[in-house]
Design brief:
The chain is mainly alpha-helical. Helix content is 67%, strand content 6%. Strands 1-2-3 form a three-stranded mixed beta sheet. A three-stranded mixed beta sheet has the order 4-5-6. Strand 5 and strand 6 form a beta hairpin. Helix 7 crosses helix 9 and helix 20 packs parallel to helix 22. The longest helix is centred in the last third of the chain and has 32 residues.
């Protein structure tokens, strides 16, 4: 019976129990049994003070390992509540790319306070890397790598690896980099670990280097990195500055993770989360404020679209059935617009569409909208006729549908390109603009069409 009860204990309950007991060893062993998602969920269920106690109970090295399993924003939230000295000790132990990612999520003052308490040499290195855009090679690279001079022999490298096993165990050794000199690390070649191990010791390191040395600039963007790894079958690529000096390496796995995070943020922004990031562990006031920044402008735009109804009060009074079908017309047209937005966003991401393709997109979406509109118009005419028996309302709704669907498709397809050309975020603004435009057109077209038909028949 006791075993059955224990099985029902949730990970966060057990984690919090161990924190309360301040059992460091049991705590260390338990959290390492959890998957990344289980750990993130367990930590998010804990109160802020318990989260702080959790990381302070662990050694800085273990605390760093724990934070690396959490989303960057969640790790940053925990660090900013700690004393600067304690946070600095943990950041010192993070992998170099994780240091940059977590510090970028902190306020400038909090990040500066932590850097001030870090090892001076490490802090200077981090300050240099924080200057890079997070979605560039410089922002994604790790600075833990192994490099050897041109004149090194294979036996020298293997001897060095064996004599520094503990130190190099923290380095993701996949390639050995050949440089001009240790003081002046101009990249000359790349040696695969397999080739190093299988080559006689007297052979020069440079002679087993890959023939074509591939590298990327420190300012190369995420799209460039993604395309590089799509073309090349490497697990990492060296990063160099303008002079060709080796700065670090970018791992394929880190690029895939960054691409996924960017897609997630775009989805969040498309859903109205302006910052592209929100967790329920954040303070309620912060979350509410961020959502209101999107909802308040949307309220104003929606009110503007709905105001057109007031221009046709007499028509609605005469044909009250219209009130039932106005949301249907607007909804169908809005869905058509959102489909077009999704296609444009996808083509922009793949590089298949540019702002200069505006007229091409306009024509393509107009033709698709016309075809969809005809089908939906006929179906809506039949539905209205069967539902109300009013032929005039059926004609008004049936004729309006193709027009509004075309508008929705064209606006939805073109707006992301226009916003991209204006250097604005298409994921953030496309939704409200498309919704407002389509609703306005749908309400106006149906009501104007009905008014005209009633006037014609007397």
């Amino acid at each position: 019976m006791s075993e059955d009860i224990e099985l029902t204990i949730q990970p966060w309950d057990h984690l919090e129990e161990l924190v309360d007991q301040q059992d460091r060893e049991a705590l260390r062993q338990f959290w390492r049994t959890l998957t990344s998602s289980e750990l993130a969920r367990a930590v998010s269920r804990m109160e802020t003070d318990k989260q702080q106690l959790l990381v302070t109970l662990l050694d800085p090295d273990d605390a760093a390992d724990l934070l690396e399993e959490l989303p960057h924003i969640q790790a940053a939230d925990i660090l900013e509540e700690l004393p600067a000295a304690d946070a600095a000790a943990i950041v010192d132990e993070l992998d170099s790319d994780e240091q940059v990612d977590v510090l970028n999520e902190l306020d400038d003052d909090d990040a500066a306070a932590i850097l001030e308490k870090m090892d001076p040499e490490e802090a200077d290195d981090v300050r240099e890397r924080v200057k890079y855009n997070p979605d560039t090679a410089g922002g994604l690279m790790i600075t833990e790598y192994l490099s050897y001079p041109l004149n090194a022999k294979v036996m020298d490298v293997l001897a060095d690896l064996r004599s520094h096993v503990e130190e190099y165990s923290e380095v993701d050794v996949r390639y050995i980099y050949v440089v001009d000199t240790i003081e002046n690390e101009l990249l000359q070649g790349v040696v695969r670990l397999k080739d190093l191990v299988l080559t006689p010791g007297h052979v020069d390191l440079m002679s087993i280097s890959l023939q074509d040395v591939s590298s990327v600039s420190d300012v190369a963007g995420l799209d460039d990195l993604e395309h590089f790894f799509d073309r090349e079958d490497f697990s990492a690529v060296p990063v160099v500055d303008q002079q060709g000096e080796l700065l670090g390496t970018v791992l394929r796995s880190d690029v895939h993770e960054a691409v996924g995070e960017r897609s997630d943020k775009k989805l969040m922004r498309f859903g109205g989360i302006i910052t592209g990031e929100e967790l329920r562990t954040m303070p309620t006031a912060v979350r509410a404020a961020r959502r209101l920044m999107y909802l308040l402008p949307t309220l104003l735009l929606t009110a503007l679209a709905a105001s057109v109804i007031s221009l046709f009060e007499d028509t609605i009074k005469e044909v009250t059935a219209l009130a039932m079908f106005l949301p249907l017309v607007a909804g169908l047209s809005g869905c058509s617009g959102n489909q077009a937005v999704a296609v444009s966003m996808r083509e922009l991401a793949l590089g298949l569409a540019k702002p200069a393709d505006l007229m091409r997109v306009f024509a393509k979406e107009a033709s698709v909208g016309f075809a969809i509109g005809l089908v939906m118009g006929v179906l809506m005419f039949a539905m209205v006729l069967l539902w109300t028996g009013n032929t005039y309302v059926g004609i008004a709704v049936g004729v309006s549908i193709p027009l509004t669907v075309i508008v929705g498709a064209v606006v939805g397809g073109c707006i992301p390109l226009v916003l991209t050309g204006m250097k604005l975020d298409p994921a953030m603004a496309s939704g409200p603009i498309v919704t407002t435009t389509v609703d306005f057109c749908a309400f106006f077209t149906v009501l104007k069409m009905t008014t005209a038909i009633l006037a014609a028949v007397g």
